[in-house]
Structure formats: C-alpha cells, structure tokens
Amino acid sequence: MSRDLARARPTGARIAALALVVAAVVSATARTGAQGWLGMTLADDHVADGPAVRIESVLPESPAAAAGMASGDIVTAVGARRVRAPGELSAAVRRTAPGARLTLHIERAGVAHDVIVQVAARPPDLYRLLEADRDPWQEPTRVLALLDVAPGRAIADIGAGGGYFTERLVAAVGPTGRVLAIDIDPDALTQLTTRFAHAPNVEVRRGLANDPRLDADTLDGVLLVDAFHELTDPAATLAAVRRALHPGGRLVIVDRAAAAFVPGTHAIPEARVVGETEAAGFHLRERADLQRQFALVFE
User: Is this prediction's pTM over 0.90?
Assistant: First the structure.
C-alpha cells in the first residue's frame, strides 16, 4: 500500500478485508521485466457459488476506469480461470504483459457482465496514487504516537509495502534517527528503493518469510501494519523482533479484525494476535481502535 470506495452490500460470510494491491496488477512477464497496471485495489468477497474478489476502489484515469470497472464490482473469473481471492486475480494479471487485454467476468448488483480491460504500463509513482486518501482512515499520527516515535530513534517498518508509514517515520525520527523498511515482495522492495533513494537514514532491507533480518539490540520500535496476518511463522518473526528491540522498546501491530483466521483473507482475530505475541514474551501495554483496524502496543 487509495484504498476504499466500496459500496454497501449484503455481507453474508465475507470478510471485508482490504488487499492493498499495488497490483490488482501487475508485474508483467519476467522475460521483459515490464510491469503492467490496472488501477484497482481489491478485497475478499463471496458470491453464490463461493469466494470471489471485490473491487474496493478504481483509480481515476486508470485502465480499469477506462473499461468501466467500478467500486463494488465482484470479479469471479479472468477469462476461463475462476478467481477466489485477491492474490489469484493479481497473479492472473501478472502473467499478462502491458498492452494485452483481459476479459474479467464480474457481477454488478447481482447481474453478470464481461468487461474487457487493457493492461497498461504501471506509473512510477503508483504508491502516491494509492495513498491519496489514506490519511483520514489510517490515522498515521495516532499510530506513530502509540509507537512513541521521537527524533533520533531507530524504527523498523516490517511489511513496509510502498513506504506509506516509512515516509512518516523518517520525518518523525529526523536526520539523527534511522528507519529500516523491510519487505519480502520484490515489487515492494523496488518501490521502496526508488522512493527513498535520496533518504540517507532509510535502509531498505529484504526480509525472509520467517525472519525480518533484524540486528540484535538495535531498535527502539517496530511497526507492523496489515502484515501480521501474512506471517507464515509468527513465533520466529516475533522472536527476531524481541531480540532486536532495546529494553523498553515498543512493538505496534495494526491489522484488520476478523471473527476467525482464514489464510489469504487479509484479516485476523485480535485475540489471536495478542495470544501469539504474548507467547513470544511481549506484554500488551494498550490497545486502540482505528477507523478500520485495531492497534496493539506491546513492550
């Protein structure tokens, strides 16, 4: 990770968790290294015959907008391939080179449609387009206060994505502080490297699925936003975070709530996060409700 323009619908069993997809969309072919773009953000949803993908928002003047896609549309298939999760739709588009066309099978207000959309070249400043309306619901000032960020401190942003929080952390710690922007996704790492190429106090670091690759006793704070539900080995990741934090350092976890944990749905029960984090040796200091997420502060 811009995010939400979803219209109200009957929820049924769906988990309305936002998938921040700088790719509803798209690395194109590995052979050329080109990247394509549709200009949508996605969430999990359901239709009568099972899971599907809801379009959360469509960026103005994007390929999706030009094709008539709209917030709230439900995508059930790409060509002949059924899609049941945001990641599946993203993967289908990644296999498509910019300039090629895709047929998306959608439901709009219960009526089926086919939409032909042409994949375009991805804008170099896509992360800023996706962040355009994020501040009001993400409440970054409040999140940074929970993390107790101050000038001169060293903070890790795990699952940094396009660098939304990294940019705000850099401003908060100032020139004497340091920010580690960590991700495992190659596309996110490329975005981060470009965005912070001229920021001397930012280090972009490639993490591993079960290891954020943090140095011991080097950090005053660690932030995970919409990332905990993606962890394949929470115990290992949390152990690495605990080793990296100075005594009294804080870990802030921000995520979307779910009644039950279903891998791939981009949300997680708050009690599960608390339980796993306390099992790793952390103490829950406080919690807060953001507009669309919960926030947990551990020491």
Answer: no
